[in-house]
């Protein structure tokens, strides 16, 4: 049993540690670099969007409006704290109304 746990720990650790040592030495084609740079944004979108639509049960439009405010502020390069606070404030204001 302990051997299985150690094996699972090694298998989990290798993909997390290996890139730190190997990726800096590899040179990727330009299209691969662009694709790899887009992954964090795609993952962030996949994690955030479900939360936006379920911020208040039965009222997805409130989350979508707050998300729109955050997108607009981010587009105009507002500070991250300002963007987050504006989205939270939008949800708060729309919840009161």
From TrEMBL:
One Pfam family from the record: AzlD
Protein name from the UniProt record: Branched-chain amino acid transporter
Keyword Transmembrane helix belongs to the record: yes
Keyword annotations: Membrane, Transmembrane, Transmembrane helix
TM region(s), chain numbering: 35-56, 63-94
InterPro entries named among the record's database cross-references: Brnchd-chn_aa_trnsp_AzlD
Top-rank taxon: Bacteria
Keyword Membrane: yes
């Amino acid at each position: 049993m302990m051997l299985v746990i150690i094996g699972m720990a090694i298998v989990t650790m290798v993909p997390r540690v290996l890139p730190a040592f190997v990726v800096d030495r590899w040179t990727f084609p330009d299209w691969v670099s662009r694709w790899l740079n887009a992954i964090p944004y795609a993952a962030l979108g996949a994690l955030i969007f479900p939360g936006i639509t379920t911020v208040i049960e039965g009222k997805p439009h409130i989350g979508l409006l707050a998300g729109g405010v955050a997108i607009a502020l981010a587009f105009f390069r507002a500070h991250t704290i300002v963007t987050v606070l504006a989205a939270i404030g939008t949800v708060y204001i729309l919840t009161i109304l």
